Amino acid sequence: MIRTFLFFAQNSFVVWICLASVLTAADGNANLRPGFDPKKLALPDTRLATPTPAPRQSFPAQPASSSASPAAQHSLGDSPGNVNSAPNRDWQDIPNPYRTQGSASASSSVRTAGLPGESSYSEYGPEEGFSNARPDESSLTSPDIAEPDGDSLYESDSESFNAANLRPTDKGASPIPDGVDPTYQDPLQNGPPASLGAWKTSFWNALGSRPHFATLPEVFGGGTFTSSRAVINDTFALDVAPGGLSQRVGISQHNKAMTDDRFYFVSQNFANGSFVGGPGGVQFGNVDRYWLGVERSFADGAMSIELRLPFSDGQSLAGPGIAVGSDSVGNLTTIIKGILFDDPSLSLSTGFGVSSPTAGSVIAQAGGETFLLENNAVHLLPFLAVTAGGEGNWFASAFLQGDLACSGNVVRFNNQTAHYNEQNLLQGDLSIGAWLVRDAYASHLRDLALITEFQHIAALQDSDVVQLSNGPSSLLLSNTLGSSSMTNFTVGLHGKLASGVTLRAGWTTPLSESDRFFDGLFTAAVSLQR
Asked: Per the record, where are the segments of Acidic residues compositional bias (predicted)?
C-alpha cells in the first residue's frame, strides 16, 4: 500500500511540474495588446488598469460626401499617412467608454465642439485618470497610427466619433459589446501581471463584481463566553466549560451580512475569565482563546460556507488542594450563509451554524475527588444579519443569533453518571462605525474605521442542576447566575493595507457588575480577503 501511494505521489508531482511549465511558457508568449504597459496592472483592488486612449485632436471639418460608406466613417484614414481623409466627421457629446462601472461619475461624458477647425479638449474627472495636457500637433500626421496594410489599430463603437472616443484593440477585433466592463482586461491576454498584488486583483475580479459596500468591516462580536460552576464537597468551587473554554460560538464575531472569500486568525484574551476557590483562598486566571477561520462564497456570491476551529491554552488553573485542566482544541463550527436581499446600500442574510463536539473533556480534582465533564453536545446556531452602508462615511451592522444545545454533556463523579444540559442563549449585536481614512489609491494604509458595538446575551431558560453524592463526597454543578444575561460594550479599529491584509484590534468591557464571566477582553485579528 505504501509503495502504491509513493508511486501515485511521484507521478502526480511530475504531472504538476509539466503543467506549470506549459502554463508559464504560455503566459510568456501571450500576445500583448498595442500600448500595453504591465505596470498599469498594479492598481487598487477596485478595478484593473484602464488603457490610456489616444490624445484627442480636433480635425478640420471635411465636406460631406454622399458616396462615403459607413465603413469609411469608422476608419482613421484611407492610407497610412492620411489621418484627415475620413469624411463627414460629426462632432457631438459621446458617453465616455472608459468610465469605471459603479463610479460616482456615472453621467460623465466627452464634451466636444461642433465648429469646424476649432480645437476642443475633453474634461475627465480624476477617477478616469486621463491627462488634459495639449497633445503634440506633430502626432496628427504620424505614419504609425495605421499599419502598412491600411487596417486601423483603433476602433470606435459610435457612428459619430472623435479621437477621444477611440479605444486600442487587437487588429481585426470587434468593439467591446454592451454590458461588458471596458476597464477589465484579461491577464492571460495582456501578459503576465507585474506583481503578486496585480495577480490577486485579477483573480478576485474574475470571480465577479461585488457591491461597493462589500468591503465594509466585520462585527467584532464582543465576548461570547460562559461557564458553569462546580462545587465539590461543599468546600471547593471551580469554573468549568466543555470545549477548552471555547465551546460557545458567536456567529457575529468577525462576521458580516455579506458573503466573502477570506482567511483569518483571531486572538482573544479574557481578563479573569477562570476561577477556582477553596479553603486556601480564591484564585482568578486569564483565558487566552484563538481561532482560525476560512470563508468561501459560491452560487455567484449568493451563499458562503465558513469553518472555524477555536483553540486555547487549555484550562489549567490550580489552587490549594484543587486543580482543573482541559484540552486545547475547541469545537469545530460550520456556518452556512445565504443572501436574502442585496443592493449597493443594504444586505440582508440568514443562515445557521453547527458546532460539533470535537474538543476534549474537563477534568478536575479537589479534596481527593475526581470530577469529569465530557464534551458531547451539538449546538445549532440560527442567525439573521443585516449590514447597511454605501458611499458615505457611516455604516452599521446587526446580528440576531440563537445558540441551541441539542444534547447534554455526560458528568462523571465517584462512579456516578449524569447528564448536564447547557442553557440555550439568545444573542444580539449592534455595530456602528465611521470611516476615518478611505483612500483606494494609497500605497500603505487604504482604510481605517472606528467601530463601536453593543452586545447583549440572555439565557432562554433556567440553569440545569446536577447533584451527585456518595457518602461524604458530593458534587453540585450548575450556572450559579441562574437565568442570567449580560451586556458588553466594544470599541475597536479596523484597518486595511494596500497589500489586501486587514488588521483589527478592539477592547470589550462588561457593563453589568454581577452578571459577568470576565472583567475585560482584548481582541486582535488579521485576515486576508478581497
From this structure: 146-158
How many Cα atoms are found within 13 Å in the side-chain-facing hemisphere of 434? 1
**What whole-number distance in Å separates Cα of residue 489 and Cα of residue 482?**
22
Q: What is the pLDDT of residues 265-310, one digit of tens each?
A: 999 988 887 777 777 677 777 888 899 999 999 999 999 999 999 8
Strands 409-413 and 445-459: unpaired
List all residues 6 or more positions away from 436 whose beta carbon is below 8 Å from its beta carbon: 448, 449, 450
- Grid cell, residue 177, equals 459589446
Q: Is 214 helix (H, G, I), strand (E, B) or coil?
A: helix
Q: How far is CA 424 from CA 352, 421, 464, in A?
A: 15, 9, 11
Question: Please, what is the Cα angle at 519 between 514 and 522, to 5 degrees?
Answer: 145
Count of alpha carbons within 13 Å of 344, Cβ hemisphere only? 9
Give the start-end residues of each E strand in 241-331: 262-278, 281-298, 303-312, 317-319, 322-326
Q: All 3 cell numbers of residue 100? A: 469605471
Max CA separation in the chain (angstroms)? 115
Cell of 368: 481527593
Residue among 483, 397, 427, 459 at smallest CA distance from 223: 427
> CA 517, CA 225: separation in Å to the nearest integer?
7
Q: Which residues of 509-523 are buried (b: 16+ CB within 10 A; e: fewer)?
A: bbeeeebbbbebbeb
Q: What is the pLDDT of residues 157-172, one digit of tens each?
A: 444 444 444 444 444 4
Taking the alpha carbons at both ends of the chain, their separation in whole angstroms is 42
Q: Which residue has the cell 453589568?
A: 512
In the chain, % of residues over pLDDT 70: 55
Would you call 284 helix, strand, or coil by DSSP?
strand
